[in-house]
Amino acid sequence: MNYELIGILITIIFQGLYIAFKIGHFEEKLNNLEKKQDKHNSIIERVFYLEESTKTAHKRIDEIKKYEIEF
Q: Which DSSP string do the residues of the chain spell out, in sequence order?
């Protein structure tokens, strides 16, 4: 066999392994970002429900104040 061909094959093998490593690292980072996004979305939902609850509480307080003023 020709030494150049062996060198090319070794280079291709190492490049393939390097690419596989990088893809695995990329997938790991992507999974971490997905977890962070899930936490963020959970917080957004919780804040939305809090805001709705606060609006309801303010309406009730206003009704109580109106009732107190009438009497």
A: --HHHHHHHHHHHHHHHHHHHHHHHHHHHHHHHHHHHHHHHHHHHHHHHHHHHHHHHHHHHHHHHHHHHH-
Structural domains in the chain (count): 1
Token pair recorded at residue 13: 């093998």
pTM score of the predicted model: 0.57
**Residue 60 to residue 30: CA distance in whole angstroms:** 45
Show the tokens assigned to 21: 């490593």
* 58 domain residue, yes or no: yes
pLDDT at 70: 66
Domain assignment present for 11: no
- Condensed to tens digits (0 to 9), the pLDDT of residues 19-30 reads 999 999 999 999
